[in-house]
């Protein structure tokens, strides 16, 4: 098994563990995973090809659609709602 595949598996396990945390405790690990994802997707694409990278990108966008939507709206200066706590 390649190092990038192992890193991807560990990232998925960390994301799953983060999802089980209460919302107020998800911010730090969630932002860390959000920041590491583009690097990991690039690494997977470089080692395994564009179709694996495409699947990884699709999975990432699916998992982080709400935080990404929030960050994009905030960057554009639009109104945003805080997530329920």
From TrEMBL:
The chain crosses the membrane at residues 43-64. It comes from the Bacteria. Pfam families: DUF2484. InterPro entries: DUF2484. Keywords: Membrane, Transmembrane, Transmembrane helix. This is UDP-N-acetylmuramate--alanine ligase. It comes from Roseisalinus antarcticus.
